[in-house]
Design goal:
The chain is mainly beta and about 120 residues long. It contains 1 helix and 7 strands; from the N terminus they run αβββββββ. The chain has one helix at about 1-15; strands spanning about 35, 40-50, 55-65, 70-80, 95, 100-110, 115-120. It holds the Pfam family DUF1425.
């Protein structure tokens, strides 16, 4: 009985010492997404970035991996060369992803000073 108790405590301690996954590489698609909570069953696909008429434009592909509908909130943060915001915070927008749906979120920076972006996502 004592051995089982010791083994259970050791197992619990080892489970708590698991190392977290490494942070995403700078400039990668994963580094552009900030999940404010869990992003279960939502996958980020291709991210397309271009400059049109001096403004940064972005399209981010999101996919619902479940067959049930999923609701989420999102907003873009527009950043300058130094990594700091160059525009006011956008309001949160709602997106309903239907079962197994894939869609693109289009966005245009509000100022030509924007050179990078961050997509912030929340799920209820």
């Amino acid at each position: 009985m004592r051995f089982k108790l010791t083994a259970a405590v050791a197992l619990a301690l080892l489970a708590g010492c698991a190392t977290p996954p490494p942070p995403p590489a700078p400039g990668s698609a994963a580094s552009k997404i900030v999940a404010m909570g869990e992003m279960e069953n939502i996958e980020v696909g291709a991210i397309r970035v271009a400059r049109e008429n001096g403004f940064l434009t972005v399209k981010v592909q999101l996919s619902n991996t479940r067959t049930k509908n999923k609701m989420m909130y999102y907003r873009f943060a527009w950043l300058g060369n130094d990594g700091f915001p160059v525009a006011d915070d956008e309001t949160w927008k709602t997106l309903n992803l239907y079962g197994a749906q894939s869609t693109f979120l289009p966005a245009i920076a509000p100022t030509p000073k924007a050179t990078d972006f961050r997509l912030e996502v929340k799920t209820p």
